[in-house]
Amino acid sequence: MNLASPITSVPGIGPAFAKKLARLQVFTVFDLIYHLPFRYEDRSRIYRAASVQPGETVTLVGTLDKVTNTFTRRGKNLQTANFTDASGSLPVIWFNQSFLSRTLTPGSRVALYGKIDFFSRRPALISPEYELMTGQPFIHMGRLVPIYPETLGLSSKWLRTKIFSLLHQLDLTDYFPPPPEFLSLQSALTRIHFPDQLDQVAPARHRLAFDELFLLHLTALLRRAAWLKTKLTHPFAVDNTAVAGFISSLPFALTLSQKQAITEILSDLSLPHPANRLLEGDVGSGKTVVAAVAAYVSYLNGFQTLFLAPTQILAVQHRETLSSMFTPFGIDVGLITSQSKAKTVQSKFKIVVGTHALLSKKIEFDRVGLVVIDEQHRFGVAQRALATQTGRSPHILTMTATPIPRTIALTLYGDLDLSWLEFSPAGRLPVKTWVVPEAKRQAAYRWLAGQISDLPAGRQAFIVCPFIDDSETLSSVRSATSEFQRLQDIFPQFRLGLLHGRLKSAEKTAVIDAFRAGQTQILVSTPVVEVGIDVPNAAVIVIEAADRFGLAQLHQLRGRVGRSSHQSYCLLFSETPDTARLKALETHHSGRQLAEIDLRLRGPGQIYGTAQHGSSQFKVAAFSDLDIIATAKTNAQHLLPRLSDYPVLLSLIKDDKINIVQPN
Ligand code: ADP
Ligand code: MG
Questions:
Q1: Which of 38, 300, 529, 535 is deepest in the core (most CB within 10 A)?
Q2: Nearest residue (CA) to ligand 1, atom 24
Q3: Whole-angstrom Cα distance, residue 557 to residue 538?
Q4: Number of H helices, E strands in the chain
Q5: What average pLDDT does the segment 94-107 reach?
């Protein structure tokens, strides 16, 4: 048994337990030993039975007499016993655990941990956890005890027992040389599971975070090396004159950042191996047109470009944007929806837009030379699917507005090349942002009405609510459907639209189209508008219960306005009077800065947490571990050429434990 062994090779873990462990994402010995406690319970102080007080949670060590099964008059099943230590004795009560009378035989020497409370008007120890004394040191008592993420049928006690014995059975010698400032693997793992003192936990975490980032980076380097070996049979030629012609046909001049990103991408495309680039840029920084230029080059080389958007709404929008750019060149842009008949789309269109969901469908493509993946945060998944689907090695351009600092992005996606749109298009005014107290709501509505009817053009507005429907438990939170009703009375002079995730996709498209065409002036919506919707005439966004969103998400929502030269506004209503965090949006307009503020105010994990971006691939490490990230990176680079000297390390990487981009 070693770290890479399947979990069923652990004594006492058969298929049934393996199934339960899978729910905790534990499949191998490695996974179990890295199933880390999220807190510790201090059971180190041993109390005396004679001096315990009701309300206290205590550890006691002593002897139990016979455990008796009884039923109360109301039919409850009770187990009672008497506990004795040198100081005195105390009744112990359990509920519905009749097996205890078999495990705890009279005279059992035990440690118990639980709460003292009154039972039949006398202090008793209620439903304690127990551990039999075996002559060995306690695992569950008399110490700092780790508490783990649990699942039905797998308690912390069970996990603790298994992990404790694994720590003693496994060879945990370092399988690669860590930098000297870190603990050995053996002590890091021992201390994170069973610390003697709480202050031992942080250094242990650092070592494990280092490992995680190191493995991640090493894997990325390996994949990059493999991908550089993939040769394309038809490298692209870049016709600079034609590209310049395309760019000058656009209704605006490109920003410096856009020009630079285009140069980087086009130079990728002319290499004899597939490009794999991540284009990062704040909301509204103009990523779409950068991808369009690449698509044009792909077209000129006789290849199809596949443009993937996260939602149907965005796919439709991209098709329109791209059509307006490509129609002058006689290029039709196709749209594949879940209803499309695959065959008709394949060869006719040189540029095809669809949703990520497309990847799961059996659609055969003609000759895909470039795949553009928009607003995709789980890069690896999509790209692996693409590799099997197109059967070739297309160039891949992934775009995201997730504000990941450059150093972090390079580590996380170390096998991607990175372009960053630093500047937003000129002439954009920062979106004026106010946190609005409830008392000023009516005044805010009057002001909003003024904005919308401002002649001659009149702006449009989004009103975003966190939920679709009213909730019984959160009655104070405004829902999109009930706001939609209410606001129609408040703004009888305007036409309102309602957009949420439960609408059928044709309905969604109709709602967005009406808004885009100016037929509706106010779009009441759930955060489905968050990603990428581009309606330049929309200049006001009102966000209800703004405190329920992270700053990064609010920044994304705010990015729906300020997409033209009009002054735009963002009004934030909050349920809680504590608006310090929201106030940051009044003064900061950069996604990266806001991400850092959120990191400070809410702690790591929140911003980039699974809920928002689906990219929490870390168990231990955090994006805020900047020093560790840097160290892990240099160490991975150094070790790469000597990787074959470290067989265990190699086996762990081969195991594909780390879920990141698989280019082509
Ligand atoms: P995002 O980076 O958020 O995907 P988009 O590509 O949707 O941004 O661009 C946002 C808006 O800015 C679009 O309406 C687009 O036409 C416009 N735009 C893009 N580049 C420029 C530019 N250089 N100058 C002016 N407007 C631009
Ligand atoms: Mg976009």
A1: 529
A2: 425
A3: 12
A4: 22, 21
A5: 90
Q: How confident is the model at residue 591 (pLDDT cuts 50, 70, 90)?
A: confident
Q: For the CA atoms of the chain, what is the radius of gyration?
A: 30
Amino acid 21: pLDDT: 95
The single-letter code of the amino acid at 442 is Q
Ligand 1 mutation target, pool 288, 325, 402, most atoms within 8 A of CB: 288
Q: What is the residue whose two structure tokens read 């201390």?
A: 191
Q: Nearest Cα to 262, choosing from 228, 297, 301? A: 297
- Ligand 1 pocket: which of 252, 318, 400, 590 to mutate (most atoms within 8 A of CB): 252
Q: Give the nearest ligand 1 atom to 559 CA.
A: 3
What is the per-residue DSSP string for 553-576? HHHHHHTTS--SSS--EEEEE-SS
User: How far is it, in rounded angstroms, from Cα 175 to Cα 192?
Assistant: 19
What's the pTM?
0.65
Q: Which numbered ligand comes closest to the C-alpha of 292?
A: 1
Ligand 1 atom at minimal distance to the Cα of residue 288? 6
| Distance from C-alpha of 166 to C-alpha of 156, rounded to nearest angstrom | 15
Q: How far apart, in whole angstroms, are the C-alpha atoms of residue 288 and residue 374? A: 9
Q: For all residues of the chain together, what is the average pLDDT?
A: 84
The one-letter code for the residue type at 571 is L
Residues 350-378: tens digit of each pLDDT? 899 988 766 666 666 668 889 898 876 55
Average pLDDT (469-496) is 83
By 3-state DSSP, what share of the chain in percent is helix, strand and coil, each rounded to 5? 40, 20, 40
Which ligand is nearest the CA of 287, by number?
1
In terms of phi and psi (left: phi > 0; alpha: psi -120 to 50; beta: otherwise), the region of 438 is: alpha
- CA 418/CA 305 separation, integer angstroms: 20
What is the pLDDT confidence band of residue 458, given thresholds at 50, 70 and 90?
confident
Q: CA angle at residue 611 from 497 to 3, to 5 degrees?
A: 155
Domains of the chain, earliest start first: 45-142 (2.40.50.140), 240-270+286-400 (3.40.50.300), 432-588 (3.40.50.300)
**Atom of ligand 1 minimally distant from the CA of 289:** 6
289 pocket-lining for ligand 1 (C-beta < 6 Å): yes
Percentage with pLDDT > 70 across the chain: 84
Residue 380 Cβ inside 6 Å of ligand 1? The answer reads no
Q: pLDDT tens-digit profile of 554-586?
A: 888 898 898 888 899 999 998 777 778 899 999
Cα 322 to Cα 332: distance, rounded to the nearest angstrom: 9
